[in-house]
Design goal:
The chain has 262 residues and is α/β, with parallel strands linked by helices. The strands form three sheets. It has a five-stranded parallel sheet, sandwiched between helices. A five-stranded mixed sheet has the order 8-9-12-10-11. A hairpin with a 2-residue loop joins strand 8 and strand 9. Helix 1 crosses helix 7.
Length: 262
Amino acid sequence: MGENMVIMDELCEMDCNVLKRLLKDDSAKCLVLDCRSFLAFSAGHIRSAVNIRCNTIVRRRAKGCVSLDQILSGDEEVKARLKSGLYSAVILYDERTPDIDTVKDDSTITLVLNALYRDTFGTEIYLLKGGYDTFFTEYPEFCLKTKTLSSFSTQSSLDSCSSCGTPQTLHHDQAGPVEILPFLYLGSAFHASKKDMLDGMGISALLNVSSNCPNHFEGVYQYKCIPVEDNHKEDISSWFIEAIEFIGKFQFLRRIHRIYPK
């Protein structure tokens, strides 16, 4: 608690119009970190922003104390520039936090802030007042926007994923795939049916652990099917070697997405 309070005293606030000027005139010297979920980031984000990786599994492993290597896993150039002090400012934002006083101790903003102060030196860190919502409202031309979260959810009920014969759980799917390792994600049949999402994550292969979910994009991605039923009686241990070999094959190439039916 004490560490967070000290850090919050050192954190500065930035108005949206200031960030707009930085992006327009000096974008190479500022690093904008999006502290929202991957799905929210994919739906729309501030131009040039980097999405941090701080999902539930990362938090649990880190026991509430994440590192710079964890939150920027896979962004080696950004990490190197950050540790070398090549950014004059780092700007954090979430969905709509209005000011520093409303940032919670267990929020993603706080976790990222702690990691930055531990692993970087001399770089000013700012909280964007009002978050993405306010910035997009005022400066939509400085944002990259695809689909909204609601359109993802609505479309999912009509998606070809329904052919899996499994009821769709929209709340569960909205969180996006969970990064287990820098090259390995855990997702659902809904996620595996979204080519734009898979492409955005750099996915090259999918491990389909189900007996009834189709391989939606054969010819685009590499697939490995493990035809098991989704119940507690199913013994999947006999498939472990094949699954591990498949994952290992792509470990040093790109990223792999493991599909579960629900």
